[in-house]
Amino acid sequence: MWPTETWSNSHGRLEGSGNDDRDIALEILNHRYVREKQHVMRFRQQAARMQFLKFGCALRRMAVREEEHANWIAAKIKALGGELAPVIEVRCATESDWDYLRSDPTMSGAAWRKWQRRNW
After folding, report:
1. Is residue 26 predicted with pLDDT exceeding 50?
2. DSSP letters for 5-67
3. Domain range holding 63?
4. Cβ atoms within 10 A of the Cβ of 82, count?
5. Number of domains forming the structure of the chain
């Protein structure tokens, strides 16, 4: 269920609304594709702003992995005969690098701790 829709809309879409499995898969893949591409933008922007070389390098490595994942998703979308969703450019307006990284809604507490273990 997407954040902008109610449970009933989401449930109706999956239960006989006329959409086949391919359309649902393409919608999910496109949503993930856009999110991955936006993560790449954020990580690169933050890496450029980092004062500490070690942390900037870690963010650039993360951006490379996210880019690879986005490309994999794009290949799946194209293999299903779909078109890539447009990616809206994101800009980091947060003053503090750490505040931004910790406020990322996709980084839960467990994901943040895992990132710290891998990159510190």
Report:
1. yes
2. S-HHHHHHHHTTSS--HHHHHHHHHHHHHHHHHHHHHHHHHHHHH-SSHHHHHHHHHHHHHHH
3. 19-114
4. 18
5. 1
